[in-house]
Amino acid sequence: MSTSENFLEVMKKMQERGLSALDAKMGIQIIEATPQRLVGTMPVEGNTQPFGLLHGGANVVLAESLGSVGAHLHAGPDRRVVGVDINATHHKAATSGIVTGVATAITLGKTLCSYEVVISNEAGERTCTARITCLILAQR
């Protein structure tokens, strides 16, 4: 299967399933997706902690969603992908608007994929940097 056929098959399966319940609840939208680079957005409103700032866990959900989709695109439609490590450094608070996450592949291997995810506010200021590693499980 060619890379473009693989991409189309994975995207078709994702469209059939729809967003995960958590992604939908948080308002995450993936607007660009290839194994090498993914871009997604998430509103700050509805994803804040009690003091009105974007919840740090919301940043992690956005990062994991992007990295997991990228790893799945790389692995192909017949493989399963699970996250095995994620970390995030929060640089600056976001209090309104939309944040954008850009996930860039660090490594795309046979069993592991890692992504750096940079999350920025509408002014283009980096608010969070995350790294996610996913394990590609053997075919059954």
Task: Give a summary of the structure in a few sentences.
With 140 residues, this protein is α+β, with helices and mostly antiparallel strands. Helices cover 29% and strands 38% of the residues.
Q: How does this structure look, described?
A:
With 140 residues, this protein is an alpha+beta fold. It has a single domain (3-136), classed as Thiol Ester Dehydrase, Chain A, CATH 3.10.129.10. The protein is 29% helix and 38% strand. The protein is built from three helices and six strands. The protein has helices at 3-17, 21-26, 56-75, and strands at residues 29-33, 37-43, 81-90, 98-108, 112-120, 126-136. It has a six-stranded antiparallel beta sheet with strand order 1-2-4-5-6-3. Strand 4 (98-108) and strand 5 form a beta hairpin. The two termini are 18 Å apart. The model has no long low-confidence stretch (mean pLDDT 90). Keywords: Hydrolase.
Task: Give me some keywords for this one.
140 residues; alpha+beta; Thiol Ester Dehydrase, Chain A; 38% strand; hydrolase; Thioestr_dom; HotDog_dom_sf; PAAI_dom; 1,4-dihydroxy-2-naphthoyl-CoA thioesterase activity
Portion of residues within helices: 25-40%
Report the biggest beta sheet as strand number plus sense, adding barrel if it closes.
Answer: 6 strands, antiparallel
Order of helices and strands: HHEEHEEEE
Q: How many helices in DSSP terms?
A: 3
Q: Which structural class do you get from the secondary structure elements?
A: alpha+beta
